[in-house]
Amino acid sequence: MIQKSPVMRKCISCRTTFDRNNLLKITNDHKLGIMLNQGIGRSAYICKSKKCYTDSKLKKKLQKALKGILNPEFIDIFEREIANYK
């Protein structure tokens, strides 16, 4: 039987490749808007290291990767979600 290799994705902050299960997925769904860890559409991934999710340029990198503008309420939700990883 053929073994599947893990799906690898790149963190938008540190540009390091990780297994998709070890990253936080941020998706810009064309109907539902921006979501965390779910949805289909343009996605960006951030690793769970403190250096990456506290990056001062993270908002700009997310806007560029998702090709859209982030709502201030999403930033609050994102910061609360990151607090769970500490």
UniProtKB/TrEMBL annotation:
InterPro entries: YlxR, YlxR-like_sf, YlxR_dom
One Pfam family linked to the record: YlxR
Domain YlxR intervals: 9-77
Name used for this protein in its record: YlxR domain-containing protein
Species: Prochlorococcus marinus subsp. pastoris (strain CCMP1986 / NIES-2087 / MED4)
